[in-house]
Each structure stands twice: as C-alpha cells, then as structure tokens.
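From the thread on structure requests for the teaching lab: each student submitted one protein with a one-line request. Submission from student K.M.:

"Model Cyclic pyranopterin monophosphate synthase from Pelagicoccus enzymogenes, tokens only."
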Amino acid sequence: MPFTHLDENQQPQMVDVTDKAVTRRSATARALVQLTPEIMRQFDGQELQSKKGPVFHTAILAGIQAAKKTSELIPLCHPLPLTKCSVTIQAVDDVRVEIRATAVTDAKTGVEMEALTAASGAALTLYDMCKALSKAIVIEDIRLLEKTGGKSGDYQSAT
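Reply posted by the TA:
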C-alpha cells in the first residue's frame, strides 16, 4: 500500500478527504515521562508545585492547546474541529507519570495526530517546568492507544 501523503510523482500532498463522510472519530494517546526522585518528592498525590506554578495543570492546558494547533505543527494534517480534548496525568510509580490524551471530532478524517500531539505537548511542558530541578527527565513511549471511527475502523494497542 502506498503512502497516502505522496502523490503519483512521490511529492508531498494533503490526503483528499472530499468524498469521505463526516463521522464521529476519537483517539487516545499516551506519553510516559520519567522524572527523578527529587522531582517526585514535590508531588503531593495530586499535583507537582514549582516556582512556575502547578506543573500538571499547566501541562494539561498545554496538551489541550497543542491538540488544537496540530495542523499548524504537522504540515499535512487537516485542521479539525475538536469537539472534546482531555488530558490526564497520574503517577505510575516513584519516578514516572503517564499522560493520557483523548481527542474527539465529527469530521472526515481521524484525530490520532491530535491525541498524539496533546500527549507530546503535555510531556514537553512537564520537562520545561521541571528542568530547573533536573535535566535527566526522559520522555518515552509516546504512542496511540486506541482510535475509533473512520474507514480504517477501530484500533486498540496490544499493550
């Protein structure tokens, strides 16, 4: 199967969705962020507090904003009217947090990139807000967990 973002001359193109039906589409992505024990000592069970303010709340807002700006960041993405975008952050263990981002739209194309961009934007914001404490923060395992709707059908990650 050829790449859909290349034309017959192997040049970049935006996928033509003109004849596709508008359907409900959703996607959930995640990013794991490995912080440090020093940073996690600032965690009160709900939030990380820093001199820059509430870290998780700021990262959640950044993730939502990133999802809304996906078509400006990723050259061949269609601009989509998001009907919902949610981002959550929770501790996985004593040094890692998981960011989950869900995007929903009623459109002609899917929202996987919006969910992935939301998770990435939130993870980068965590780094930015915590880097004064440590530069050893690692953003890892950014992936699509599931998607629904569209011609290709539903997808569920094996892990």
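TA comment: Helices lie at 37-40, 55-68, 70-73, 112-130. The domain at 23-145 is CATH 3.30.70.640 (Alpha-Beta Plaits).
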